[in-house]
Fold:
Amino acid sequence: GESVGLHLPTLSVQEGDNSIINCAYSNSASDYFIWYKQESGKGPQFIIDIRSNMDKRQGQRVTVLLNKTVKHLSLQIAATQPGDSAVYFCAEEGYGGSQGNLIFGKGTKLSVKP
Amino acid sequence: ETGVTQTPRHLVMGMTNKKSLKCEQHLGHNAMYWYKQSAKKPLELMFVYNFKEQTENNSVPSRFSPECPNSSHLFLHLHTLQPEDSALYLCASSQGRQGFYEQYFGPGTRLTVT
Structure:
């Protein structure tokens, strides 16, 4: 079945360091992937997305890498700041009967130490 | 902030009560969603509406009843809930249903069933 999961439930980094959050997905036919950030007391907030015809996409301080060979997705945050502390979710767009739906992973909690 | 508002933000209800959650989006989107977020579990899609028509019911118990009077408003009517229904209920909207549309989330309603 379809599933999206995260390698590590928690990640602690020093302020100013780079953060890497990983995600594995099971459906090799998935065409679209999204990273969301959820701060305490808020709903998930879109960070960056990538389509399957790309292997890298950059935003402001964030980069998403897609490795279709091993079905792996990662989010890199440069110069991590305290405001980056949150839970990060990867999601893939479903296929077949679930096309248009997002399938979310469990989330990785990122803690930034000052 | 995201253009999706939810009320109330917190709700405590007994198992015999009837209550409703409200969601409103100010983004001109055509699709709206209800998700359930429980501790240590991925976001679970509950219902999907596209152009006011329900297109998906993800095997949700009948004690949850959605209503979408127009493309901007979405309700979730609750009755005779169980304690295990306690969770964060998130509403989201997107421009369309298929074709790489990101979803914008509201802040959620924290529901506690006593």
Residues 16 and 80 of chain A are 5 Å apart (CA to CA). Chain A touches chain B at residues 4, 31-32, 34, 36, 41-46, 49, 51, 89, 93, 99-107 (CB under 8 Å).
